[in-house]
User: Fold this.
Amino acid sequence: MIPVPVKLVIDAVALVAYVIVSLPSLTGVAPHEWLGLAVAVVLIVHLAQHLGHVVSSVRRAASPGPARAVRAGRAVLAVLLGIALAVCVTSGVMVSGAVLPTLGLYAEGYYFWNPLHAVSAKVLLALLLIHLFINVRPALGIWKNRKSHRG
Assistant:
């Protein structure tokens, strides 16, 4: 089990890395591609460390209670984030001008993959902003609570 402060640090690193990678004009295309793969790994770790929470949220969303709609909404958001990440990474690799050639590979279908990558990146950003908005307050509460118990 990963301690909560470590999870919050991984979350913060994932957010900062995503912001940097989401601006290829800042990094250049080749670094954008390589950093994108690295960020994908960080986001997969993030998803993995919260998978138990997502699974329990999905189960609780099916149970009756006043917060059922909220739990269901959070579960749907988590699933949509995973799908958007998978589509964005896959389409990004398929239009790669640096990663694939380095591996000696070439992918057909640029005119399919490139628009898909652009749209999925925007959808991923929108979903991440929603995710951040609904989770920043609980995360800060956990962080403050941990600090007050230590000091």
